[in-house]
Every structure is written in structure tokens, then in C-alpha cells.
Amino acid sequence: MKLFFETCYGSLNKHDEELCGDKVELRKQGGDTFLVLADGLGSGVKANILASLTSKIVITMLSEGADITDIIETMSATLPICSERQVAYSTFTFLHADDRGRIHIVEYDNPQAIVLRGGKALPLDWERHEIGDKVIREANLDVRPGDQCVIISDGVIHAGVGRSLNLGWQHKNVVEYLENSYRKDGTAHSVQNLLLSACSNLYMGSPGDDTTVAVCQARMPNVAYIMVGPPVNADEDGKLVGEFLKYEGTKIVCGGTTSQIVSRLSGKELRTDLSYVTPTVPPIGYIDGIDLVTEGIVTLGETLNLLKRYEQNTVGRSNMLGQRGDGATLLARMLLERCTGVKFLVGRALNPAHQNPGMSINLNIKLNLVNEIVACLKRMDREVDVEYH
Questions:
Q1: Domain 4-219 falls under CATH 1.10.3720.10
Q2: What per-residue confidence (pLDDT) applies to 104?
Q3: What pTM, to 2 d.p., does this model score?
Q4: Calpha distance 198→246 (Å, rounded)
Q5: How far are the Cα atoms of 70, 145, 179, 283, 377 from residue 66, in angstroms, in the given order?
Q6: What is the C-alpha separation between 197 and 190, in angstroms, rounded?
Q7: How far is the C-alpha of 134 from the C-alpha of 370, rounded, in Å?
Q8: DSSP 3-state assignment of 86?
């Protein structure tokens, strides 16, 4: 089976700088994933411009099949050398992963990438060669599901220098931290934010350099199929539920009426679970063969809130969902930790329970919630599809 590569990245700006001098570009084409981290010379506007130009040139040429020699020569001819320091305008790391599990990493003056397998760093067979006046490192490897490739800028290994640490965080210390904090169910997002959180703490909340972490994690594809609401034409209930039950992947049902339809047509009992009750999220249910059964609009709204908080929180993200057992947290955890893609089956029938004059809930709220969740998941590198009925 082809692999899916979950990718994410995040940065801490140097203290008092509005722009980050590091820049990450990500592009996916078919089964190929291309990622570039460029670190511009210095900080602020100048560094941001140089890193942006470098990352854009590299990602464009890389995704079009150019080899490393052509890329280096193009950058050398296009971008300037610092007249004061006579050093490179920007360092960079780029990664190319294909869905067969083959990864190619190329580095120029950036800290070495770290590949973790089962919580232990893999030794990489680096090849060094010169292109013009530049020394380039290259490595090729085959990865397995769960392997994580961590790419960092030098702000990571400088973390704490002159403050909490005399010499900063050395590369070996970063490797040890990643190994010690390994979680079997960890995601690319959780690894990225654990590392950024540690850097922020070492800098005492005032980064002395732009600091960027990008993570690419190999995963087995697992699509979550989410049925939300019954179709407009009730005659289609049987067909839709039949197709839903045949899907291979995680199956989720959202909505009281929807869960009743699935229960009736599947011949499986719908049971309500009152073992975990909160004042804000209705109880979950159980149907044999379905991974999660929740209430509809209220649960989707709280799930959206959790996804947004998860997306926006740059530190401590890995623990923010905790171990709560309410429907919204369970749904958010499935979408973030278990699934690589999501397909929504959205029914547009009006719910009879919402037609009372005193009820303000309507179909538009449900559709808007689904659209916002879709947008949020896409920003977090999930493949999302929506099918209306």
C-alpha cells in the first residue's frame, strides 16, 4: 500500500522581529511530497526576503524534476552574496518523499535532519560533494510507517545560548530530546510543537534567533468517513448507508437522526453512553461496526473550536486534547491522530426537530460548520473531500 506523508511546520520569530528569517515551502504533487526550509542571512525583512526567494526557487525547480546541481547553479546566479560577510544569502534543506517510502534529503549549511524510527534516531549515510564553492550533503533512505523526519533551522541548536545554556542546544541534545519524548501515537504536529516548546523555554520566551521546525511523518493511509445528516431524498437513505458501511476506514456518524437511520438500516442497536457527561457536549453513542457516534451541531461546533485551538497553539499542542472522553474531543483526536484523510457525507435534509418556532438551529449552521472544519483540516495537511446528498 502507498504511504501518506503528513507534514507540518512552525516557527518562532527572533525577539522583536515581526517577520521570520526562516521560510518553509511545501508542495504535494500526486504521490510526491516536496518540502524546503530556507534560513535567510541575519534576521528581519532582509532575511525573510532571501529565505522566501531561496525556498521558492528550490521548491519550484525540485518539483519540476531539476537535479541539485541545476538548483544550486540557478540560486548562485540569481541571488546575491552578502557584501559585508561574504557568506551565503541563505542556507537550506530540502526533502523529497514519494508514496513508495523513498526519501531524498539535501542540505546546505543547515543542521542535519533527524530521522526517528520507533523513538530512536537512524544513522543516515550522508554523501558530501562540492557544487561550485558550496559543500552539499545528500542522503537517501527508505522509510516505514511511523518514521518521522525532523528538519530544523540553526535557531533550534542555538536555543538557550548565553541564557539557560552556555553553548546553546547542541545537535546531539536535540536528538536526545526527541528520542526521550517519543510517543508511539505521536503525530507530525505533536513532534513539531514539542520541539518548538522546548526551544521557547530554553530561550526563556525571548528567542535570540529565528527558530523553525518542520516534520514529515510516514503513515499508512486511513480515511475517516463522516456521515452528517440524512439526505434530502429519504428514498436514498438505504443506498447512502449501504455505501457508508462498505467503506474501509474509520466510520463516524454525527447527528441524532442520522445515527437512528444508520442503526435502523444496519440492524445494529444504537446505545447511548452516559459514562462521560459534560455540560457543553452531548453524550456519545455506540453502534456495532461504527467507530464513533456523536450528536450533531453542538458536537461539531466544539470539535471546530478544538481544531482551531490545536492549529493556533504553537506550544504544548501535543497535550491539549488530554484524555477527555466527550464526543468533540474523541472526534478531534480521531481526525488529528488516526486519520490521514477525511470524506464528509453531508445530508441536506431539514431536521424536523429543528423546525419549532423557538429553535434557531438550521441547515446553514451545519453546512457552515462542516465547511470550516474542512478548511481547518486542509490547513493541517489532511486530504478532505465533501459529498452532498
A1: no
A2: 95
A3: 0.81
A4: 44
A5: 6, 28, 35, 54, 31
A6: 10
A7: 49
A8: coil
